Request: fold
Amino acid sequence: MAKPKRGTKELSDGDTASPQRATKEVSYGEASSRLEEILQNIEEGQVDIDALSALVKEAADLVTLCRQKIHAAEIQVQTITEQLEREAPVTTDADDDEDDEDDE
Reply:
């Protein structure tokens, strides 16, 4: 018997009906979960061959989205870290020595 055509159904459900539009609106976690779902369906052979190319395209779009989000997060973290370093008080060795003497 033929396996269920879950891939076609899932592609047409909810916010994944238009992969390009939907991937711009989903969070990293949602994109990652959808990628896992697509991969699992393909590995289990639950995707109709006619829906396979659409799912592969959706997966590629989701991978691109995830990479963009990771890159944006890296830039944000770097910017914040640089800002914190600029705002941090500058200490000298003399300041450190005074702190050590107080501890004794």
Remarks:
- The mean pLDDT is 77.
- Residues 6-103 form one domain.
- DSSP finds five helices and no strands in the chain.
